[in-house]
Design brief:
The chain is mainly beta. The protein contains 1 helix and 10 strands. Strands 4-5-1-7-8 form a 5-stranded antiparallel β-sheet, with no helix packed on it. Strands 3-2-6-9-10 form a 5-stranded antiparallel β-sheet, with helices on one face.
């Protein structure tokens, strides 16, 4: 029953951005992942993983977190062990949200922001949020299981205008046509 491809295994999502200017409130961005069941792949998330949590089974977790963007290169990272997720999961959506604690900020307000999605040494996505510059949050990746159970990647850069809490509940909705 081999199709020649095992699909994705351990994927990492990395996030970078420049710190805010001197004497300004810090820019705080977060990677958020939402998991969906095979019974409701566009329904409510089974669980959500972000900087302050991890998946119940340990398959999705934050390995690096930044509240300011300070550091070199990618300062925040989330690891998704897709090959270890239970068969009851059919979809995982990953996005990035900007905290709105100090007034409205969009991706256009954050300098040098970028996301990188890798599977081992293979780059799946590299994006600078330019296409969703006016948004406060955005999805970047969708991982789905095929009929054989292998995980596949789809680029899913879509902008949203919501804070991190609201975004986490709406990020996996089916796109409006």
């Amino acid at each position: 029953m081999s199709s020649g491809s095992k699909g994705l295994g351990k994927v990492e999502v990395r996030l970078k951005w420049d710190p805010s200017p001197l004497h300004q409130p810090p820019h705080h961005l977060d990677i958020i992942a939402a998991t969906y069941s095979a019974d409701a792949p566009f329904g409510r998330p089974v669980y959500i993983v972000h900087y302050d949590s991890r998946s119940p089974d340990g398959t999705i977790n934050m390995s690096r977190h930044s509240q300011t963007g300070q550091g070199f290169g990618y300062v925040e990272a989330m690891t998704l062990e897709l090959d270890r997720l239970a068969p009851s999961f059919a979809r995982v959506v990953v996005g990035v949200a900007i905290h709105q604690n100090a007034g409205l900020k969009t991706f256009a307000d954050i300098s040098n922001a970028g996301v990188l999605v890798v599977d081992g040494y293979t780059e799946l996505l590299k994006d600078d949020f330019a296409q969703i510059a006016g948004s406060t949050a955005g999805t970047v990746a969708e991982f789905t299981r095929d009929r054989s159970g292998a995980w596949e990647f789809q680029e899913m850069v879509r902008g949203f205008d919501s804070d991190p809490v609201v975004f986490s509940t709406e990020m996996g909705a089916a796109p409006q046509s």
